[in-house]
Amino acid sequence: MTKTQIIDSNTPQMLGVIGKISAINYLKEKKPLSFVRTYGCQQNVSDGEKIKGLLEQMGYGFAKSTEEADFIIFNTCAIRENAELKVFGNVGELKKLKKKNPELVIALCGCMMQQEHIVEKIKKSYPYVDIVFGTQAIQTLPKMLLTVLEKHSKVFDTQLHSGVIVENLPIHRDGDIKAWVPIMYGCDNFCTYCIVPYVRGREVSREPQAVLDEVKALVDAGYKDITLLGQNVNSYGKTLEPVVSENGEKIQVRFPQLLKMIDEIDGDFVVRFMTSHPKDCTRDLIDVIADSKHISHHIHLPVQSGNNRVLDMMNRRYTVEKYLELVEYAKSRIDDVAFTSDIIVGFPGETYEEFLDTLKLIKKVGYDSLYTFIYSRRRGTKAAEMPDCATDEEKSKWFRELLKVQDEVGYERYLSYVGKTQRVLLDGESTSKEGYLTGRNSQNILIEVPADKSMIGKFVNVKFTKAVKWALVGEIIK
Ligand code: 5AD
Ligand code: SF4
């Protein structure tokens, strides 16, 4: 097991470097602006908020577009090829900005930068990029930036420091109602299609007290919707030493225990979590959710495929039967429990008949919604070497079939909410309907209700009157 090393970012050296950059920025005629664009998953969004936290401390404001910025950072995603292509396209567009303003600093970070062939390509084809850093080097950003500002040289830090957790980085949160709290980093599962274990390193968990302190501080600051993050939250705690309780008892804090501790925090808030790996999802966890006050009645439980041979080739380490057993148990224990999932279509060697098993499973579980992907070959993963017989056209056809089935299943699920009254957290103005606010129920479904802006950030009871494909429409019940 990887030994965890916890680093406090508030070292005198770090504060010294931040101070030097703030001084440089303070002397400028106008406050310099930064622009951070984050691609991909919520873990990346959370990393982006830490990068913005550091930028704020270093005296940067935030620009609305790359054109206005003095410092541009792209926080990248490597999960599928099209995510990478999008980044390369956007980095290509920065060339003209750098030409117009040679003082512009450009940095690339995140999962893509943890792959050697990508870093080589950047060195060769995008020489105007100044800073490149990986997923575990956020805390070194001030030092790298100072080198660029003082010495005008390029800096690359893409080493994978497995087992390191950095605490106390400043965070510039994007909203004041919803917040992300990472509870663990990295992944040890090595699903054969997935690049994440290679680019985010080994699994490490934050200390329970650090997570509890952060959640408590958020609740005290008025946050109402807190999502705990990890590639596989169900394996939380595997790398932790037991905690010694007041009566000297040793307690191993795993995910169900952590959730229970968070649920005991006073206040009016909802806690969500993602992502759960079915192989580590236990009845204990389902029991904690069922008996909780604050934990949302929604489980994002990526199944990937509904066929045991494909699941085995994917190295998922559960069977369809075991998955369904968990789903049935959750349905029997948790009121109105909702499931969402990730599905991959066209894994190497998957046949049409095997794909049909996935459709069967989707109907059986009755997912509220799905994140669906066509398999994308990732260099260095095991699946990249597996023979693939289906053509791109076939896979696209299967994909369309999948969307059609889920549209029907999802709509039926949404219809089942009509007539019910549920507690909903109102979180913003609707962009499509004037006079309407949006919100989320415990199941994380998008809700639309006519209401005044002053209600944003409040929990209200909503009676659902109509289901549309992507949302529930309702009215506030006093
Ligand atoms: N191709 C397609 N989808 C992938 N995912 C991960 N790797 C790949 C890949 N190579 C999907 C999985 C995972 C989600 C985050 O992204 O469904 O659960
Ligand atoms: Fe990738 Fe599997 Fe880890 Fe999820 S659990 S990040 S799919 S390797």
Architecture overview:
The chain has 478 residues and is of the alpha/beta class. The chain folds into four domains: 5-157, 3-Layer(aba) Sandwich (Rossmann fold), CATH 3.40.50; 175-269, Transcription Regulator spoIIAA, CATH 3.30.750; 297-416, Transcription Regulator spoIIAA (2-Layer Sandwich); 421-477, Nucleic acid-binding proteins (OB fold (Dihydrolipoamide Acetyltransferase, E2P)), CATH 2.40.50.140. Helix content is 34%, strand content 23%. The protein is built from 14 helices and 23 strands. The strands form seven sheets. Strands 3-2-4-5-6-7 form a six-stranded parallel sheet, with helices on both faces. Helix 1 (12-26) crosses helix 6 (141-151). The termini are far apart. The mean pLDDT is 96. 5'-deoxyadenosine binds at residues 79-80, 193-194, 302, 304, 342, 344, 373, 375-376, 378.
Mean pLDDT: 96
Reported CATH architecture of the largest domain = 3-Layer(aba) Sandwich
Count of discrete structural domains: 4
Structural class designation: alpha/beta
Our Rg estimate from Cα atoms comes to 23 Å
Uncertain segments are none
Strand content: 15-25%
Total count of helical runs of at least 4 residues: 14
CATH H-level homologous superfamily name of the largest domain: Methylthiotransferase, N-terminal domain
Summarize this structure briefly:
The chain has helices spanning 12-26, 42-57, 81-92, 94-100, 116-125, 141-151, 196-200, 208-220, 255-263, 283-290, 308-313, 320-333, 352-365, 392-415, and strands at 5-8, 33-38, 61-62, 71-76, 105-110, 131-133, 155-157, 164-167, 178-182, 184-185, 204-205, 225-229, 243-244, 250-251, 270-274, 298-300, 338-345, 369-374, 421-429, 436-440, 446-450, 459-467, 472-477. The chain has 478 residues and is α/β, with parallel strands linked by helices.
